[in-house]
Amino acid sequence: MNPKFVTAPKTQAPPKLLATPDVGFRWGSNKGENCMADQSLDARRMARDQESRLVGATAVGLNMIKPIVQFQVSLLRLWAASIETFARNCENGLEAVNSKVEQRSHQQRAA
């Protein structure tokens, strides 16, 4: 026997107290006895575990998508700014054309 690995002496649990890996300790026999309280506790635990996994996955997904959404918003703002600039340039061009047309019409009336 290896002296590094010394195990504690095995002790027996009381006959009515059984250790189960999913619930902890419960009262009952070892013959597959499963009362309704144990089933509801097990269902609640499974639902809670599933909910925590879902919340964790959602948080990870939102943290991953946040920079992508911020980038898309910045592109949308640049696009809107360029459209405003284009509209302003078109308006200025139309005003220039309109003023030249008015000048020519005044010149033709004067002549």
User: Overall pLDDT, averaged?
Assistant: 76
Rough shape?
rod-shaped
The proportion of residues in beta strands is 5-15%
The SSE order reads EEH
Number of strands: 2
Helix content: 55-70%
Account of the protein in words:
It is a single chain. With 111 residues, the chain is mainly alpha-helical. Helix content is 68%, strand content 7%. It is built from one helix and two strands; from the N terminus they run E-E-H. The protein has one helix at residues 36-110, and strands spanning 17-20, 24-27. It has a two-stranded antiparallel ribbon with strand order 1-2. A hairpin with a 3-residue loop joins strand 1 (17-20) and strand 2. The longest helix has 75 residues, at 36-110. The radius of gyration is 39 Å and the shape is rod-shaped. The relative contact order is 0.04. The model has no long low-confidence stretch (mean pLDDT 76).
Task: Give a quick precis of the structure.
With 111 residues, the protein is mostly helical. Helices cover 68% and strands 7% of the residues.
How are the elements arranged and paired?
Elements (H helix, E strand, L loop, with lengths): L16 E4 L3 E4 L8 H75 L1
Antiparallel strand pairs: 1-2
Which key features would you list for this structure?
single chain; 111 residues; mainly alpha; two-stranded antiparallel sheet; 1 helix; 68% helix; 7% strand
